[in-house]
Amino acid sequence: MLHGREAEQATIDDLLTGARAGRSGALVLRGEAGIGKSALLNYAAAQGIPTVRSAGIESEAELPFAALHLLVRPGMELVRQLPPRQRDAMEAAFGLGDSAPADRMLIGLALLTLLAEEASEGPLLCLIDDAHWLDRATAETLLFAARRLDAEGVVMLFATRSGPDDFPAPGLPELALSGLRADAAAALLDTGPTPLIPAMRYRLLAESGGNPLALLELPSAVCEAGSDDLNPLPLTQRLQLAFHGRVARLPVATRTVLLVAAAAGAEDLAPVLRAAATLGAALPDLQSAEDEGLISTDGQVLTWRHPLSRAAVYQGSALSDRLAAHRALADALTDDDVADLRAWHLACAATGPDEQAATALEHTASRARHRNGFHGAVAAYDRAAALSVDTGARLRRLVLAAETATEAGLTDQAAHLAGRATALHVDAEARLRKRALTTAAALTEQAARTDQSVPTDKAALTHQAARTDAARTKAGRTDATLTEESARLADRAARPAEGDYDLRLELVRAQAEFAAGKPGSAHRRFIAAAIAARETDPRGAARIVTRAVHTAWYLGPAELDEVAALLTTLRLDEDDPITPIARYLTGSVSGHRTVDLRAAAAVARANGADSPADLVQLCGSGLVVGQDDQVGDLADELIGESREQGRIALLAPLLFFRSEAALFGGRPSESRVAAEEGLRIAEDIGQPQWISQITAFLAYLAAVRGDEHSCRVHAWHAVAEEFGGAQSVGAPWAHAALALFELGRGRLEQARTELEHMTVEPARHHVSGLRTLVDQIEVATRLGATDQATEALARLTAWSARAGQDWIAALAARGSALLADGPEAEPHFLAALAGNRPFDEARTRLLYGEWLRREKRKVDARGQLEQALDLFDRLDATPWAERTRTELAALGVGVGAKTSAGPLSVLTPQETQIVRLAAQGLSNREIAARLVLSHRTVGHHLYKAYPKLGVLSRGELSRLDLAE
User: Fold this and answer.
1) What percentage of the chain exceeds 70 in pLDDT?
2) Could you give the count of Cα atoms lying within 13 Å of 376 in the half-sphere of its Cβ?
3) Most buried by CB count within 10 Å: which residue of 353, 456, 740, 936?
């Protein structure tokens, strides 16, 4: 029975009721130690729903996917039935089979599919205790799945401590547990076996703060200490001391086996008993601890009553005993499948540099990195470096730790590790130079005695060393150490630094600085690294320069020109996959269309480029030179490849580029679907840059629709402090969105204020800055700011000339029409209508119709305005349609109802996406794999869409016009 948790139990009951009805849900229980989180999980488990469980284990917190394996192990047979790529991903995560490492989010999708399969015949409850001790790979996988639960009938409950860094779970509902109310606390205290005098009872109720574990454990401890004990320690520490007092009364052998179990952390007793045997303890010795209520065991599994009891055993033991326990565990863990656990126990047993432990940890790190367990790999490399005996090995491991931290997105930690590695490298080089000078002096002295010259190169030095050895031998003394050192130093001088650490660390620092919002310093590092690698590794230099394109984009034209110039100096082979990419980027960063985007991508693929990863940046660059249709096509291909290969981290940027291309091509609904999916993925896997970018673009889409609330909320969120505030990457599109909304409503001064942000670098040369030039012209001309309009038109005309795109020329023609006087405007308007991009065409016809009305040509004006209205209605561009209706009303023309937007207009963006894929003949499982959902969620959305569309089954979808 739980005391005082009726509200929390009701919340859990609601989730379980929903699961029985096919609805999914997730909840995070947060609270201090002993507050009753595990008790609530046990309450949920007792409600008759099939349950799977896992828990974070402190000693396994650096072992990737350790806790996930505990959760999945009972359903491993279902793992083998997953779609092949998901099955391979999960098996690779567990180190099974020969599959290549998979995107971590593909493992999350595999878990989502697995949970849906387990819930196929009824609800499923998934309980995760001690989530604050989950290994990072498991935590990310579980959160990914939890955020995407919808209609599977699965409930996930997490229990975690309440510290600020304990299991952050953005996007999931949380329930904070506080102490029991006074009457419930009193009732729980009275259930204990210890008789209490009123004063002691009052004191315990006051000091416990309603913590259930304190109410159960402290009475006996306080009574033993006496009523005068006014312990000032925090409650958690007092509870730990209470447990330690109970442990101290146990026999020595019992304390020994408990210490080994505490050091092991896991529940499996077999390795614990093997290790304890070497320390003189055995299974029967656990009986006393079980009688004391500290643990429970069936001879195979050991369960601690509470994590604090385990902590009390471990932290209350002498250091020498803890070291011995870890050494015994390392010796007991001999199987290959526990090599990683053995390595960490070796590390815990080390009291100083220990190459055996360091080597074992380096192997552990390598395995973790191969399985995409980057956080665990960083910790292992870092600890291996600390245990290294040799300076060179320590440096190598620190560099690997820094590089792996960069891969994991731990940019602050990467920068710190790079700093430590650099200091070690500099110190090692200084010592090397000093020893070289000492050796040279010794050789000089020796040469003077033997009438020899001092050698200056490796061959001569080696020859000289041999002669010196012979001379010394003849003299009765051989100093082999000096000769070997001389040869080694000569060899060291004749080749570059091992692993080119300087260059590798420079790249780590560059990426860390860029992630920290310092594109200037990151750019300088990228450029310096590319120049350093240019002669010896032009291909590597080219890849570095492609990163510099990204940093330059956030700085300005000077940096873009610098990148373009550097790209032209690289000696690349024609069959190198980076060559066509570099050539395309060279043109795009300077705003010139030098080659067809499709051709560049095709040649790169034919040369062996890593598609889609190597080609992502072509999409962003293609938008700069106006190749929107080609960008849309290439993005579609790369999105398909990313889904097929499980490279989910690439989807957010690709969906962003696809969304931009779709809107520019006149398909706002398709654009919104892509943007919302991209945002969901970026939030799921923690990509703040793309969260900011896509959120800002969703604001722009809302501006097109005239949805003021959505526009402003998205724009403000895109420039939140967590994304860099006013300097966030999404700021340009956010300002463009607000400007378009104000312009659509006719609020010209407000529009000009927002557009002013687009006239300064770096926004000035961004896609958003180029695309809003025509807005700048319209606002400036209507406000009488001719000089500003003329400048914007000059830039638009120059962009048109460089890009060579008809639609950009049409925008320039519209700008010329707005600046022309009288009849001179009409030829420009007519030229502007040749662009054939729906939103741009509609706006041109609106402006042309307004001009015709002012010229008293009412019939011609009506024709242009009616065509504009039809286009605006089809695009759901409400403010622009209203403005057009106002113009028609001024002509005395009655305006009919809004043109139907087609059957898809009644669906949500996600329903639209699912319906389109179903109409193409894809199964629910195939759709689920594409959209990173469970197949049951896909089915749920389809059945919601059918009545909206007036159909009864997916077979009827093919008869509908689902085009935008």
Assistant:
1) 87
2) 35
3) 740
Sheet holding 25-30, edge to edge: 51-55, 124-129, 154-160, 25-30, 174-176
Q: Is 27 helix (H, G, I), strand (E, B) or coil?
A: strand
What's the chain's length in residues?
964
Average pLDDT over the chain reads 84
Of 73, 126, 446, 411, the residue nearest 267 (C-alpha): 73
- pLDDT tens figures, 45-75: 999 999 999 999 888 888 889 899 989 988 7
Better-scored residue on pLDDT, 431 or 426 = 426
Region of 650 please: left (phi>0), alpha (psi -120 to 50) or beta: alpha
pTM of this prediction exceeds 0.70: yes
Please give the Cα distance from 656 to 237 (Å, whole number): 50
What is the spatial distance between Cα 361 and Cα 35, in angstroms, rounded to a whole number?
36
Please give the torsion angle defined by the CA atoms of residues 637, 640, 645 and 646, in that order, rounded to the nearest 10 degrees.
Answer: 130
Residue 543 CB neighbours (<10 A)? 17
CB 774 within 8 A of CB 815: yes
Q: Omega into 195 within 30° of 0, i.e. cis? A: no
Find the helix or strand (DSSP H, E) in which 128 lies. strand 124-129
Alpha helices in 353-410 (DSSP H): 355-370, 374-387, 391-407
Q: What is the pLDDT of residues 691-748, one digit of tens each?
A: 999 999 999 999 999 999 999 999 999 999 888 888 888 999 999 999 999 999 889 9
Evaluate the CA torsion angle 314, 316, 320, 324 in order and state its sign: negative
Helix-helix angle 578-589:557-568, to 10 degrees: 150
pLDDT exceeds cutoff 80 at 953:
no
Burial class for 297, CB neighbours closer than 10 Å (0-12, 13-18, 19+): middle
Helix (H) or strand (E) holding 126: strand 124-129
Q: Of 81-95, 345-359, 462-476, which range is least confident?
A: 462-476
Task: Give me the pLDDT at residue 962, please.
Answer: 67
Q: Is residue 131 a contact partner of residue 160, using CB atoms and an 8 Å limit? A: yes
How far is C-alpha 311 from the chain's CA centre?
33
- Of 334, 392, 333, 332, which is closest to residue 362 (Cα–Cα)? 392
Q: What is the pLDDT of residues 829-856, one digit of tens each?
A: 999 998 778 999 999 999 999 999 888 8
The type of residue at 717 is H
Evaluate if residue 442 carries a pLDDT over 70: no
Whether cis (ω within 30° of 0) applies to the bond prior to 879 is: no
Residue 183 phi, psi (nearest 5): -70, -40
- Per-residue confidence (pLDDT) for residue 473, from 0 to 100: 38
Which residues is 126 bridged to in the sheet? 52, 156
Task: Judge contact between 560 and 597, C-beta under 8 A.
Answer: no
Relative to beta strand 174-176, strand 25-30 is: parallel
Distances (CA, A) of 208 to 216, 711, 777: 10, 49, 69
Q: Which amino acid is at 85?
A: R
Residue 613 has pLDDT above 80, yes or no: yes
Which residue shows structure tokens 């609601």? 14
**For the residues of 137-195, what is the DSSP string, one character each?**
HHHHHHHHHHHT--SS-EEEEEEE--STTS---TTS-EEE--PPPHHHHHHHHTTSSS-
Q: From CA 384, how far away is CA 400, in angstroms rounded? A: 11
CA separation for the pair 776, 792 (Å, rounded): 7
Q: Is the pLDDT of residue 498 over 60?
A: no
pLDDT class of 5 with cuts at 50, 70, 90: very high
pLDDT of residue 546: 82
